[in-house]
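Homework-ish question, so no full write-ups if that breaks the rules, but can someone show me the predicted structure for this set?
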Amino acid sequence: MARIERRTAQHYEWWLLGLVFLLLGLGLTNLMSATHAGAEGVFSPNVVRQLAAIGLGTVLLVAAMIIDYRQLERWGWFVYAAALLLLASTLALAPVTRGNQSWLVFGPLRLQPAEFAKLAMVIALARWFHRNPPASIRRLRDLWRPGLILVGPVGLIVLQRDLGVAVLTLLIGCTYLLFVRIPARAWLAVGSVALAVLAAVWLFGLEPYQKSRILDVVDPGRDPLASGYQANQSRIAIGSGGLLGKGYLEGTQTQLRFLPTQHTDFIFSVLAEEWGLAGASTVLVLYLLLLIWGLFIARGSKDRFGALLAVGIVGMLFWPTVVNLAMVLGLGPVIGVPFPFLSYGGSAMMASLLAVGLLLNVSLRRYMF
Amino acid sequence: MSQFGPSGATDPFFDGRLRLFGVAMMAAFAIFGLRLLQLQVLQGDELQQRSQRNSIRTERLLAPRGEIVDRKGRMLATTRPAFHLEVVPSELRDPERTLTVLAALVGDEEGRLRTSYGDPRGRARFQPLRLAADLDWERLARVEAHRYALPGVLTEIRPYRQYPHGTLAAHLLGSLGEVSPAELERERFEDYRPGDVVGKSGVEALLEPQLRGRAGGRNVVVDVAGREVEVLNRVEPATGQRVMLALDLELQRAAEEALAAAAPPGEPVSGAVVALDPRDGGVLALASLPSYDPNLFSGRIEAAVWQALNADPLKPLQNRALSGQYPPGSTYKAFVAAAALEEKLRTPTTTTFCPGGFRFGNRTYRCWKREGHGTVGLMRSLMQSCDVYYYRAGLDLGIDRLAHYAHGFGLGVKTGIGLDGEQPGLVPTTEWKKRRFGQAWMPGETVSASIGQGYNLLTPLQLAVSYAAIANGGHVMRPRLVLGVVEPGGALVEQRPVEVRRVPVSGENLALVTEGLHAVVDAPGGTGRRAQVPGVSVAGKTGTSQVVRLEVTAGKKGLAIPRQFRDHAWFVSFAPSEAPEIVVAVLVEHGGGGGANAAPIAQKVMQRWWDDKNGRLLPDSDEPEADATTAAATAPGGSRGAD
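A: Not a homework solution, just the prediction itself:
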């Protein structure tokens, strides 16, 4: 510990932490506006819960910074198994709410194990690729083990009927494919198989509402009052914000609640409506900064496990951002995926802060060997 | 193998892929940035407007329709607020329970409310849905008292037309209805919207522009559930103008009551009474029976009621006073007499011998008095309605000269009263017959025409207008429904009387005819003595127009004849004969003889006029105007302006 403390002052990692907390502050401010309508007082129950999640998440972040991340390499399988167990028990115990079965409820506490399972999967994959260097993987069939690691949590999340998080978990896992040495023609083969699978899913696996959400991306005007309602209202909210926005607490789409699920999935629309292009692009730049910073941490890591862990965590922050922004901006289908640090949601918040803690951990220990 | 050396130098492959990842990220964020630019800058204005359209609702505030009052300011048509029960489905906590409670509160069948509620989905869930229309005061109060416990339940207030006297003067006042798609196409209705109420008939249609008023509006900010958050601005609706009719409510009542009382036992009565002021054409009464209740049309009329009104063989919706065309019968003789005098074919002293019939061609035209009138001059020809005198006078004039004078009295064309459904009647000429039938006029047809039979047709209103022209010295006036329109300040803007034409008969000759008409009522042996009003010199003329050839009803008399074969009974009169101020025309369909059946009706109307004039009536018990419905006009959200 003492070693860390001595070096801290010189390390710009604290700026990274500052960046995260800047985003958290912006997120909270924005959440206050998103939940302002109809709420009594300044702090809506949602804001209070979010604050609690940030508090708990900060504790997790500090804890994740303090332990040596290399311990995780040893305990990787245990973490992964615990996550699978948690997902399975959710399936067994949790009530079905709004078609999903993804919440474990302990009194006032509600936990979404899938959010933590993503991190556990990243740890397990980082551990596996640490032992089987990705640069040495040249054949598709070498990937069957990490494939299995991926399928475990994704499959369980699909069973919970939480399609958004399942897709996200899949994408996060696939981040590692970027680093294997499999030739292009193999990817072509994978691509065609994937296409066939997608076609099959489209034909047999998707509910009609899911299909319309995808069709709405291609043609936003096809059903503006039903399946396209959310995307349409989001587009209106963002566009009507203009250059400088309508002002804090002044967004009509937000305050009159025309925006659907505005405190979770469509939180970015709230920001764009009230702060305009100026505010929205600022947040985008801050985000990009955070992600690129994460890549530099991966690059600077002394050992492969740290680098792979950092890459996975960057993927964990990158993919929900991309999927959410695509949805909110009308470039992708409506999938219930929260925006990291901005959306209301305790489990996602705590899991993200935990991940940032590990990222800082990797960063801080690069001079330690 | 240490790819991750202490220097921090990494495997170049891994490093390259990291760079690739970074570039992909930047590309993705660049796309998002460009999309933001597109939405917020390029499409910013358009989406800004759409967000306003989302949240700003423009509501129309309907203007209360102007009141219609009679010549003494008595209310004929007014506007009251009507309350509708509505719900916003998305706001209902428990639709099933709410419907059950509402059914109990408004005393309606639960099934009916449930049918009105239906199964709202999508956007419809956020919009108010009407469950019950026009709640009465008591039921409204019950709903209001429970509204705090029923989120999502609204009471919507709209102005409703009310005719306090029900069926009285229904045809004249007219009725309302929703503007039709065909009407919306017309320029006159360019500022109307579907669902707007518009005058469909009667004065309501004639004075639609004045009565309608100007709708106001307000812009309110609403949230996604349609709840009002803020009122941005409000333009008050302008109440329609008050219209004062020439009608005399009590005279109208007397006319309808007298006509209704003429019904034979166990049979219906149908007919019309028109009372005009001959000095300005003012329509004092315009009755048509059977009638209907225009209040039925103020809301949404029930299909069964509408069908019953249309299917009724007596056609209660028809305004017989101006769309019913009948042979004038002997009432026509006044015009023949005036024409013969003006053409100097007759003088007051020339006489005709009536043996009880008239042989012309190879046919005998009977006088109604079989035994004959003997030697008949102008006065007695009118007084006793001698047919033979007019057969000869008509033949001397010829049909075309007769038609010239008939037209001169305003017959054969619409009077221009302005009400819908008016018919022009028919004054036959040789040219008309050629055009209509391609045949030459037969002299024998002139014989029939000179006693108002044959092709001649006129409406009760036309008869009143033409006799008014006799009474006022030759002025054919356009019937004047409206005395004026009351401006917002309270001043009456008078609608001036209009003279349509001058009768081509001198004042002296009209005075001679009037003298004969006076004798009809006043002299012993006159056919219209039942029209006498004590203390007033009444002039008049009876008429009995055949519906079918005499052979059909041969051997039968009075009520023994089936109703549809009975003669129409006419009577037309004016008084005082020296300075007339009222003309009354009466038609009783299938009423039989005019002197016996129509004259008493005219008498009652006249009597009423003079009773009223001489103050022999009890003081008017004017309708109480400040009743509950008026008080309700100040209820919250009321769109009714100040009275």
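Now go work out the reasoning yourself. Hint: The longest helix of chain B spans residues 12-42.
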